[in-house]
């Protein structure tokens, strides 16, 4: 789905079809807090499943808690209600890159 600039297919472009359904987080992105606001540098987990759009961002801490309580990965995902494999992969395949990204300062102009 590409943006058509208001021409061509009304109601079929990316802005009119996806934005009302998913809002600003339709791509599963979450804006990180600056380091001064978040001294613990929390995880940046995608808000929604990339494939089906189910909210998965609020399940990350519960998932980690279940893993620490000796649940297997599959049992923890079942307990959280993640049945579809597209949603399950969002938690299983997540890699925490925020610690590496915080090492680089933005360029100053």
From TrEMBL:
PROSITE patterns: RNA_POL_N_8KD. GO terms for cellular component: RNA polymerase I complex; RNA polymerase II, core complex; RNA polymerase III complex. InterPro entries: RNA_pol_su_RPB10, RNA_pol_suN_Zn-BS, RPABC5/Rpb10. Keywords: DNA-directed RNA polymerase, Metal-binding, Transcription, Zinc. It is found in: Nucleus. DNA-dependent RNA polymerase catalyzes the transcription of DNA into RNA using the four ribonucleoside triphosphates as substrates. Common component of RNA polymerases I, II and III which synthesize ribosomal RNA precursors, mRNA precursors and many functional non-coding RNAs, and a small RNAs, such as 5S rRNA and tRNAs, respectively. This is DNA-directed RNA polymerases I, II, and III subunit RPABC5.
